[in-house]
Task: inverse folding
């Protein structure tokens, strides 16, 4: 399986227009020129391909796949192996996008060594361009070690779903001066630890604007207002596929769940009423030269079956 993946990746690389793929120097340039970065999640081949075809700058293979793909109630059960498999799919589909692997719960919290080892898996096994991990000052040792290992590292503060229990649930953060100050301190510490980018989630736009202005590194937001250096959304929210809940900061651009449900409903109705399949539109027939032989065979089989049934 690994050989097959490497061959398919090599084929994708041959097709790659390297001039179109943005890398870290491009994102720093975009920040300086105030050109917003576009970022979206993807967990499968086709979503990633559609994102690349649409001109997306970055793709996050988020641990949100636990809810959007596996139907978990949270991101907590997601494993490294699951993240690697989905990252491989996305990498094959989008060789011209900057791919970020999301470090799942307990893949970096236990020790710095674990953090480096698991971050390396995203690069070595799935050919991601970077990794992302949640947390502020408390994960700065992990960030520093990951960067020292030569891996592009993206921080994530604000609403951090892996630690939502400590935050009182999936609630917006930074809405008081004290909380905003703590976010600013975390952001500065993450930059000082060597992170290459920072993601802000579910915080007031005033706080997002302040942090973006204070940091040298690109600052992207998901529910952090319009003043950050770029925006991230969950693909399942954008296309209307995820139905459990919709965060306030989401803009839906399609209703894929409605389209799919209606398509399945029409299929069920057609089959129940024998409107599908239609002959000859959906059927393959016996070759014309074999037709007489098949009719003779069918007649013999029918007679045998009828005889056996009568004997019973």
Result:
């Amino acid at each position: 399986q690994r050989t097959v993946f490497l061959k398919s990746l090599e084929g994708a690389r041959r097709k790659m227009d390297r001039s179109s793929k943005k890398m870290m120097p491009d994102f720093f340039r975009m920040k300086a020129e105030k050109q917003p970065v576009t970022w979206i999640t993807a967990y499968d081949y086709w979503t990633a391909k559609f994102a690349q075809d649409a001109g997306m700058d970055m793709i996050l293979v988020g641990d949100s796949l636990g809810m959007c793909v596996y139907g978990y109630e949270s991101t907590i059960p997601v494993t490294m192996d699951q993240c690697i498999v989905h990252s491989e799919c996305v990498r094959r589909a989008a060789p011209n996008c900057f791919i970020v692997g999301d470090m799942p719960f307990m893949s970096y919290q236990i020790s710095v060594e674990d953090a480096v080892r698991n971050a390396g898996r995203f690069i070595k096994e799935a050919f991601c361009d970077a990794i992302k991990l949640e947390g502020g000052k408390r994960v700065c040792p992990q960030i520093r070690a990951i960067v020292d290992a030569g891996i592009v590292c993206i921080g994530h503060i604000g609403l951090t779903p892996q630690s939502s229990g400590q935050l009182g649930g999936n609630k917006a953060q930074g809405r008081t001066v004290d909380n905003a100050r703590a976010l600013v301190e975390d952001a500065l510490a993450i930059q000082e630890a060597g992170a290459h980018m920072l993601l802000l989630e579910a915080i007031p736009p005033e706080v997002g604007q302040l942090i973006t202005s204070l940091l040298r590194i690109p600052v992207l937001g998901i529910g952090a207002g319009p003043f950050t250096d770029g925006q991230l959304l969950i693909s399942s929210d954008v296309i209307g596929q995820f139905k459990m809940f919709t965060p306030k900061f989401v803009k839906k651009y399609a209703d894929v769940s409605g389209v799919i449900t209606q398509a399945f409903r029409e299929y069920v109705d057609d089959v129940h009423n024998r409107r599908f399949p239609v002959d000859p539109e959906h059927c393959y027939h016996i070759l014309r030269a074999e037709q007489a032989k098949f009719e003779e065979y069918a007649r013999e089989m029918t007679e045998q079956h009828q005889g056996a049934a009568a004997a019973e």
Summary: The longest strand covers residues 153-158. The chain has a mean pLDDT of 94. The first helix runs from residue 2 to 15. The CA atoms of residues 159 and 171 lie 7 Å apart.
